[in-house]
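Researcher: Let's continue the batch. This sequence belongs to Lipoprotein signal peptidase, and it's 172 residues. Same format as the previous ones, please.
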Amino acid sequence: MTSKPAKLFALALMAGILAIDQISKWAVVENLQPETAYPVIGDIFRLYLVRNPGAAFSFGTSATIVFSFIQMAAVVVCIYLALRNTSTWAAWPIGLIGGGAAGNLTDRIFRSPGGLHGHVVDFFSFGSFAIFNVADAAITVGVILYLIYAFFVEPRQRARATEEPEEVTVSE
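Model: Same format as before. Here are the C-alpha cells for Lipoprotein signal peptidase:
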C-alpha cells in the first residue's frame, strides 16, 4: 500500500470504529435496562448496561475529566500519525486506538453529566472479568497490534532496508 492509501485507511478505520461504537451504544441504551443481565452465552457472555465514569475496571471514577483530556490527546496524536503514516501495518493500530479513544471521548463530552465529565456506556460482559464496549475492544486490539508492529514487524523492515545488496558481477 502506498503512502496515501495507508493514510486514508487509518483515518477511515478511526471513523468506522467511532461510528460502530456510537451506534452500538445507542442501540444498547435504547433497548436494555441498566444493570440487568441479558445472557447471550449463559454466564460466559452477556449484555449488561452500565455507565462508567472511570477507566478500565472502573478505575479512577473521580478522575473523569483527566481521562477526557487523555482521550483528546490520543485522538489528536492518532490523527497526526495517520496523516504521516506510510505503512499498512501501522494504519491498523493507529485507526483502532484513535477510533476507540474518539468513541469514549464522545461519551465523555455528550453523555450525562456531560462536558468532559460524561459516563462511558459499557455493555459487553464476559464472566466476572470486565464490562467494556466496542471502543475499549478497539483500543485493546490496537495496542496489541502496535506492540507486534513495534517489536517484530518494524525491526525486520528496518533490518531489510539497511542490508546491503549483494554485489553483482558482470562477466566479459
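Researcher: Any comment?
Model: The mean pLDDT is 90.
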